[in-house]
Amino acid sequence: MLDWLRSGPRLTGTKEGCAEGDCGACSVLIGDPRSTLQQARGEDDGDGEVQYQAANSCILAMGQIDGRALVTVEGLKSEHLHPVQAAMAENGSSQCGFCTPGIVISLAGLAARKSAAGAGLAARKSAAGAGLAAGKSAAEPEIAASGPATMAEVNDADIHDALAGNLCRCTGYRPIVEAARKAGITAIDGPHAAAFAKIEPRKTISASGSTFHQPQTLNDLLELRQEKPGAILLGGGTDLGVALADYHSDWDEVISLAHVRELRAIRETENHLSFGAAVTWEEILSSIADYYPSFATLIRRFGSTQIRSMGTIGGNIGTASPIGDGPPALIALGAEVELASSSGHRFMALEDFFLDYRKTELRNDEVIASVSIPKPVEGQEFRVYKISKRYDQDISTVCGAFSIIREEGQVRSARIAFGGMAATPQRAARAELALVGTNFDQNAIEACAAAITARFQPLSDWRGSAEYRLRVAANLAERFWRDVNGETVEVIAL
Amino acid sequence: MNIDAKIVQRSIVGKGIAHDSAARHVAGEANYIDDMPELPGTLHAAFVLSPVAHGRLNGFDASDALAMEGVAGVWAAKDVPGHNEVGPILHGETLFAEGVVDHEGRVIAVVAARDFETAYRAAKKVKLDIEALEPILDIEEAHRRKSYVLPPQEVVEGDVDKALASAPHVLSGTLRIGGQDHFYLETHIAYAIPGENGEMLVHSSTQHPTEVQHHVAGILGVHANAVECQVRRMGGGFGGKESQPTIIAGAAALVAAKTGRPCKMRLKRRDDMIATGKRHDYVANWKVGVNERGQILGLDVEYLARAGNLPDLTGPVITRTLTHTDNSYFIPNARFIGHACKTNTVSNTAFRGFGGPQGIITIEAVIDTIARELRLDPNIVRAVNYYGEGTGDMTPYGQQVEDNRLAEVTDAVLSSAEWHYRRAEIDGHNATNPLIRRGLAMMPIKFGISFNLTSLNQAGALVHVYLDGSIFLNHGGTEMGQGLFVKVAQVVAEVFQVELDMVRISSTATGKVPNTSATAASTGSDLNGMAAFKAATAIKSRMTRVAAEYFDVEEEVIIYREGRVHAGNRSISFGELAKMAWAKRVQLSEAGHYATPKIHWDGKTMKGRPFFYFSYGAAVAEVAVDTLTGETRCLRADVLQDVGSPLNPAIDLGQIEGAFVQGMGWVTCEELWWDKAGKLRTVGPSTYKIPGSRDVPPQFNVRILDNMPNREETVFRSKAIGEPPLMLGISVWLAIRDAIASIHGRVPQLDAPATPEAVLRAVSHAKGAIRV
C-alpha cells in the first residue's frame, strides 16, 4: 500500500522508514464500518460511526482495505490543519519532520477513538439509562459515573499507547506528548458508515498476477482452503507483510480471513471467552481487560496500536513464532484452539498445537477457527511478564506467564508457560508441580525457579544470551510471588 | 566588526520561533528527496552488498539480474571512469570493492532498473564469487594483532608514570562502550540528474554537499564545476550523513552518467544499517592516581576504537575523544592514547558528539569508581577536580579554560533537582526495598566547540535583496531538523529589521555557496550564522549610505525598524530603499565569509587551542532498577544547558531534549549485535531499539542557563547546541550504577549500554554471586 500511495496518487506525506511495521512513518488511518466490538455489543445498526485505527501501510496489501476507508496525512488537513497537526506545528513537535506525518496519524487516531468512545458512551447512557452491559467489573461503572468528558479525556498513558508504534529520533518526544494533550479529541471527518452499507467486500480481487480471495463464511473459507492448499492464509498480515515489503515473497494466491463472519466473532459464555481467529489484538484488549488485567497489560505492549489493529489472534498462533507473546499467556490460561476443515472441527490445548520450530498441528486443509479462554475462577492469580530491551513495541527476550488457583491458601493447580526459551512456546510442568500443594511460600518459589532453570536450554541471540534468558525466566517466579503478595514488582509501575 | 554594537535592538534573534517547516511537516507537505516528482525515464538503483565479513572477491555473475525485465545494467569498480574513491580525508577508500570485501554490507556493485522493486530484486540475483577469509571482528583482537587503519594518537601532559607511582591511591578498570546506529528516520538517498556537456545535478541527503560534489566529480572524472549538489532538508542526520552520502550519491551519479538517465538511489533500512557507518564502539583501559580527597593526580587511558574496515573519520573522532577525556576536570598528568582498530565490520563514522561521548563516559566512570572506592560523595569528587582556582585551568592538550561555568551549572542543577532531599529519600527507599533499587546521579559536561581541524572552521553565505524588499538567503549549512535554517534566517531578518517571512530560506547548493564544511561539530549556526550576518551587514551598510543620501543625514542617524528605514521622524519602507539603491546602481547582493578566529591545532604534538569556546551543561538523573530482570527506567531528569544568548530558545530546547534522549538511548537500550560470522543482526527497528515515547522520563525538566552571553564574539553571543547535551544522557547510566552500588556498596561492573542483560549481570556481581 505504501508503494502505491507514494507512486500512484503520489501522496508522498506517508513515508517509508523501515518497511517492517516498526517505526510508524508509514502510518495511515483505516476506517472500518464493521467493527467486531460493535457487533459483539449489538450496536452495529449499519449507521454508526466508522471506527478509525492507525495501521502500517508499509506492510499492508492493497486488498486489505477493500470496503474500508483510508485516510492519509494529506486527508487530515482540510481548509485548516487538523487539531493534532496544529498543536504539533505550534508546539515544536517536529524537527526533521520525517516521522511527523506518521505521528500525526497516530494521534489523530487516538483523538478519533476518544471522540467515538465519548459519543458511544453518551449514546449508551441515554439509551440504557444507567445500565451497562452485564459482566463488566468494577472499573466501568466508575467511568460511566463520571460521564463522557472523562472517558474522552486523553491521558498520558493513552498517548504513549498511541505513540508506541512511532519512532522519533530528533525531539525526545516531550513536545509531541504535549501536543497530544493540547489537541484534545476530534472525530475524523470521513465517510459515514452508511456510505459503506452497500459496499460488500469482493469475493476475489485479481491484480498484478496475484489473486486475493475474501471468503465471508467459514464454509466458503474451508472450501477455498481445500481447493488451494498452497494459498497464503492472511490474518492481519503483520508478519507476512514484512516479507512482502522486503519484496522476497510472491503472493500468487492469498486467502484473506478478515471478512469471515465466524472468524470475526467474539463469544462469551458463562465460563469462557471465545475469539474468532480473525479478531484483532486491539479488539481482544478491550474484551479481556476486565478478566485478566495482566494479559491486557501484555497486549498493550504487543507491537503497537498499529500492529494490534491489524494483527489477529489466529495469525499470532498460526505463525508459531517461539517469541510470540500471545501463546505463553494463553497456554498458562488453559486456552483451547479450534481447528476447522471440511471434514470437521477438532479442539486441542494450545500447548499441543505447537510441534516444533514454526511447525504446528495445522493441516493444509485446515484453518484456525477460534481460541477459547476460561474465565477466571475464585482464588486464581494470573500474571504474564514480558522482558525486552524496550518497554513498548519490542519483541520479548523472555515472556513468562503464571497462573495459580488457590484454595484456603494452598495452591490447588498451577500453569506456567514461557516464550523465548525454546523452539516453541512451552509449559514448565515441574515448575508447576513445585507450587501445587504448597502454601505459595518462598520455599515453593525457590523450587519453582530451580525447576525452570532445569527445564530450558534457550538460545543466545541479539535479544539476550542463553544465560540471561535462563536467569530471568527463573527470577520471574520470584516476581510472580512478590506480585501476588502485593509488592510493586515492575519499574514501569513507579 | 562588533556584533553587539551594530544592532539597535533584538526583535527577532532570541525569540522562540517555530521551525520554518513545522506547518508543512505536520501536513505531509515538506518534501524530502524521495518525494520529489520523478523525471521521465528515471532509473532506481540498489546495491549488491557483500554477504560475508571478509573474503577475496574473484568476481560476480550478473547475467540473471540483467535478464530480468526492466533492468538497465550492473556497474562496479571497473566501470568507474574517474577515481573509485569516497574517503572523506584519506585516499584509497573505495566506493566499490576491489579484489577484497572487508565487511558484511561492503558495496560490490550497483544495479539499476525501471523501478525500485526490480532493482532490489535484481541485486539479490547477482551471483558473487567470494572466497571467504578469516575476519577480525573483535576490537581487542585487532589490537593484539596490530590491525589498525591509522597510527595511534596521543595526548600527553606532565609525567603520568611518576604521578601514578607516587599517588596515595591507584585504581584501574576497563570500560566497554557500545556503538550506536544513527537511525535517522530517512535512510540514505540521492537523486542524480544528468545534464548536458557532462554536467550532473545531485540531490543528496547529505550534511556535506561539497564532499558529495567533489567525490561525484572524482568518480565521473570531471571537474568539480560540472557537478552541483543540492539538499533542501534531510530526514535526520546526526553525523550519519556527513561522510557516508558519497557512497550513495556516487553510485547514483555513476548510473546516471552511464545511462544518460536520471537515477534515484534509496537504501532499504537493512542496507542502510549494514552498508553505512555508526558511532565507534570502544574499549577503554584506564588507570588513575588520586589523593585522599579523590583529586586526580594522574590519568592514563588507552582507547581501542573500532574503526571498522576503513579510516573514514576515525582519526578526528579519536582526537575528540582524547580532547574530551578531561571533560570538566583538571588532570595535571595525563596520557591518553587512541588506537584506530581495523576490523572486518562496517567503517564507523561521525555521530553527534564525534568521539566526545566515549571520552566523557570514560572519565565519568573513573570519577564514579574513585568515589565508590574511597567512599566519597561522587559530586564532591567531581567538584574537587573541576577546572578552577583550586586546581588549574590548562587542559592536557594545551588549551586554557577561560569561560568556566562549571560551578554555575552544577549548583543550579543540584538545586533545581532538589538533590539533597531526593538523595535522602532514595537512600531510604533502597534501605527497605530489596527488589527495585533506585539510583541518582549528577554529571557536568564541558564540550569544545569548533572542528578540531582548524581549516574546516569557515563558512560562506549568499544574501540577495530584491527590489520588493524580499530577501533571499543561502548558505553552506544543511537542514537536518536541527533548525539551522530558521536560526540563520533570524540573523538576517535581525540585521535588516524585517519580518522573518521576508527572508526566503533556500536549498543548500554547491553552485551558490562553494567549498563548504560539513554541517557538523555543532558549528552550523556559529559558522553559517556569522557568514550570513556578514553578508547582510555589508548590504545593509551600502543601503544605509543610499538612505543617508536620500534623507540628507549622517549614516549614524539611519535606523532600520519593523520593515522600515527611519531618519528621525521620516521613513521609507525597506522595499523602497532597495529600489532606490538599485536605481543608484548599488549592489544588493553579497557573499559573506567567516573564519573562526583564535583557533589553532598541531596534529603532531596534539596541542593547541582547537576550540573557540566551551559549552557547559549538567544533568541529574534518577532511575529505578529491577534486580530480578535488569530492567531499568529513568524516572526523572533535570537538565541544564548553557547556550550563551540563544538565537532561538525554542529550537535550542528541542535540541537539548532530543540530544538527551538520544544519549540515554546510547547508554541504555541501543545495542548493536554482530553474530560470530560478523553479520550485523540488529538491522531494523524490530531488532535495534531506540527510545520510544514512554522511555522519556515522566519528569523531564529541561532548562537553558539564563542570560549568559558567550564570552567569545559569536553570532549574537550564542553558543552551539547540537552535540553537547547528548552527553548529559550519560547521567542515566551513572544513576543505574548508583542504584546497583546501593546493593552492596561495591563498584558496579557495568558497561555501556546498560541493557537489562548488562544490568542484571552487574546486579549479580554486586550480590557477589552469579547464579546461572
From TrEMBL, chain B:
Q: In terms of domain of life, where is this protein from?
A: Bacteria
- Cofactor(s) in the UniProt record: Mo-molybdopterin cytosine dinucleotide; [2Fe-2S] cluster; Mo-molybdopterin; FAD
Q: Which protein are we looking at?
A: Xanthine dehydrogenase molybdopterin binding subunit
Q: Which PANTHER family match?
A: ALDEHYDE OXIDASE 1-RELATED, XANTHINE DEHYDROGENASE
Name of the encoding gene: xdhB
- Classification via Pfam families: Ald_Xan_dh_C, MoCoBD_1, MoCoBD_2
The alphabetical list of record keywords is: 2Fe-2S, Iron, Iron-sulfur, Metal-binding, Molybdenum, Oxidoreductase
Family that this chain belongs to: Belongs to the xanthine dehydrogenase family.
**Signal listed as a keyword:** no
> Taking every annotated instance into account, which residue ranges of this chain make up the domain Aldehyde oxidase/xanthine dehydrogenase a/b hammerhead?
27-134
Organism annotation: Phyllobacterium endophyticum
Keyword Nuclease annotated: no
Q: What GO molecular-function term can you cite, just one? A: oxidoreductase activity
